[in-house]
Amino acid sequence: MNWQSARSVLCVRLDNMGDVLMSTPAMQALADALPGRRLTLLTSHSAAALAPHLPMISRVLAWDAPWAKHAEAQAAPAPGPEIAACARWLARFRFDAAVIFTVYSQSPLPAAVLCALAGIPLRLACCRENPYTLLSDWIPDTEPGTQPGPRPRHEAQRQLDLVARVGAVPRDTRLRFRVLASDRTAVAGRLAAIRGGRSGPVVVVHPGASAPSRRWPPARFAQVAHALAVKAGAHVLVTGDAAEHDIVRAVCAAAGHARVVPLAGALRLGEMGALLEAADLLVSNNTGPVHLAAALGTPVVDLYALTNPQHTPWQVPHRTLFADVPCRYCYKSMCPQGHHRCLEDVPAAHAVQAALALLGGTPDSLPAVELPWPGTGAAAAAPAEFDAVPAMPDDGATRHLPHDEADHVHPWH
């Protein structure tokens, strides 16, 4: 067996939706490399909601790996029995090969053990240490940490480089997300009701994020929502999942404008995709909807915590806003310094100006700002002038992959 003849390939991406979306160009390249190749995605239950929206994937398997960095893993049982049971379950599929996608700060070796136990003969990943026989093919991971040197690759490019090692060269490097016709229809009706016949751009504001270190203050989002409703006549839709009702309502209440509408828990994933496809702009923390918007070609204002330099919006008009700090690129979900200055020091006015420039089709009116990197001279540059915005006070059951259904696909909701 070799990669050129591997027809059944397991793609392992065990973290969150945004990470899966950033891997879609590489997965598409794998699918295109051999006619008739069938890809299966093994991912977390939360990311498995993407199942109907990934055109290159034939089957999605949901499993909450006990070592992975996602909410479900925090409640996972002891890893030994889980891993052995999952390996036995995967062995039933008789995969020819497995590609293990990880971010730089993750090790692929636990997943490599899983795939080896499942009897998958070809196993590919990036790895910082010698994997010996756990990986049949691997790329030594020399990605820089925080030291001076080459700027690190974007996460999407990192995965494209990985699959290129085994001959999967992409024809198209965009992120992928398939919007279903039923979701377009549902969202079109909702937007018509919200607009009420009034004109104006549609702006989606997403104030939540799974990691506390990636959350801009809700009151700043409220200032941005208010300013865009007033200055651009925008219909501002504030989104979040059901657990984010409080933050969404707080943003809308503080914004204090009839065109700012709460949509917490109101949209399924497919409808969120349809909404972003129809929207003129997304203003968000650096979280899943940013990568969803990038997949759909919607411009993004990204409030970008300097936790990881590799996750900016990919191949879409955007502005990343941040404050440079000495502790940049901590790779932490909780700010280890406790001050969140990389986001706390970004004023709402900068986000408003970036949003207006993107809405007006004049992003070149803003300075092009790269994320800072030691030795490159790149630093955070804010617009020299901006209009004031109204001042507002700052607001301060785990499911596992079943082993009795060989073709289980996690239902999305």
From TrEMBL:
CDD domains, alphabetized: GT9_LPS_heptosyltransferase
Disordered, as annotated region: 389-413
Keywords annotated in UniProt: Glycosyltransferase, Transferase
GO biological process, one term: lipopolysaccharide core region biosynthetic process
Superkingdom in the source lineage: Bacteria
Bias-annotated ranges (Basic and acidic residues): 396-413
A molecular-function term among this protein's GO annotations: ADP-heptose-lipopolysaccharide heptosyltransferase activity
Signal peptide bounds: none
Listed Pfam families: Glyco_transf_9
GO cellular component annotations of the record: cytosol
Listed name of the protein: Lipopolysaccharide heptosyltransferase II
